[in-house]
Amino acid sequence: MATASRGSNARASDHVREDRLWQRHMDMAKFGATPKGGVNRQALSAEDARARKLLGQWAAARGWEVFTDPIGNLYVKRPGTDAGAKPVLSGSHLDSQPTGGKFDGTYGVLAAFEALEALDDAGIRTKRPIMAVAWTNEEGNRFQPGCMGSGAFAGVYELDTLLAGTDPHGTSVKQAFAEVLEAAPARLEPKLGFPIDSYLEAHIEQGPILEATRNEIGVVTLIQGMRRFYIDVFGEEAHSGTTPLKLRKDALKSACSMVTALEPLMADPTDTVRYTVGRFEIYPGSPSTVPSKVHFLIDLRHPDLATLKRLGDGIAPICEAEAAKRGCTVKVTEYTTVEPMPMEANAVSLVRDSAKALGMKHMDMVSGAGHDAMHVAKVAPAGMIFVPCWKGISHNETEAATARDLANGTRVLVDALVALANR
Length: 423
Ligand code: GLV
Ligand code: MN
Ligand code: MN
Known about the structure:
Layout: H1 18-28, H2 46-62, E1 65-68, E2 74-78, E3 88-93, H3 106-122, E4 130-135, H4 148-153, H5 159-164, H6 173-183, E5 187-188, E6 198-204, H7 209-213, E7 217-223, E8 225-234, H8 251-266, E9 274-283, E10 293-302, H9 305-313, H10 315-325, E11 329-338, E12 341-342, H11 345-357, E13 362-367, H12 373-376, E14 382-387, H13 403-421
Parallel strand pairs: 1-5, 3-4, 3-6, 6-14, 7-13
Antiparallel strand pairs: 1-2, 2-4, 7-12, 7-14, 8-10, 8-11, 9-10
Helix pairs in contact: 1-3, 1-13, 2-6, 3-13, 8-10, 11-13
This protein binds glyoxylic acid and manganese (II) ion (MN) (2 copies).
């Protein structure tokens, strides 16, 4: 059916309320608030449960159904007029980096929720249901891999393997999810994954381009690919006071030489390659014992599949050569592989047209960050909307965005959602 209006103005975007959206961000930011004004809200933690509970309360106030699936993805459903129609989904994540900000992920969930509220306020009914979703563990800090909930939903990962995964303290995903369900009860849908019509995700850009070019909206055309590796370097413990340097198998020095030896491989005059070592653990961690083991993580990203393949495949041989120089051994394990993922052409056009119709300055862009959309795109047409963030800073407690930009992205989102939901 066509959209029906209660008032004189049936455009959903006119009913997005900037003040309400902003206040909801401030309310969410209390859960896991850090002294520097950021957020540390680890996946399936007590803080995550409090955030989920609040979202559930807001949904209940509107009379919308809330449910969760076996990996903890949380859905808020605004019904459509056609009970049999596949839903349109929109959302992102509520977990954060350990030194995260108020907007990474949370914005996508709250923009989707604001879109539902704007539709209600406008008296607009859509043919398809529209659901807001908070995917579990996008950040991949407490539990591996990242984008866990969306990956499970899209069939990229096996549910039982994910549930058995543990955090550094030995708590499993299964146990943590059970605790979340107790603290923030929601109907548990036993089956993972269901058919959806399409998916749109709003997110802060997390980079400097929109701000620098004074664009209000980024129309995402592609999410660059990502490969992540565990590197385990094995040497031998020895007394630091008595063991001559030549006789040592020092896992730390070997690991450091690997990080350095990879630099020339990753060197790129166009500055497109993203090569990061973000975790580095040394065992046994005593001042008087030569390190016997180092565990570190490499995160590699590139928009071009062939380049991503060549660079990622080059990591193990270089690490092995470096290990051999010091009598050490190394094990390289790839634990995340995501190919560059184009957004669906029609979803991209809808976002672009929505921004155009609203008179917002917009540009096409590639996402440097990974997002849940990269997995959901495997099972449904998907698109993304970026809004500017201050100086492009993200994964940082000072991350900031303006209420106006957040609302503008939500306006683009809701009009595009209506178009999808009435197809
Ligand atoms: C998501 O936070 C990413 O690491 O790209
Ligand atoms: Mn994010
Ligand atoms: Mn993030």
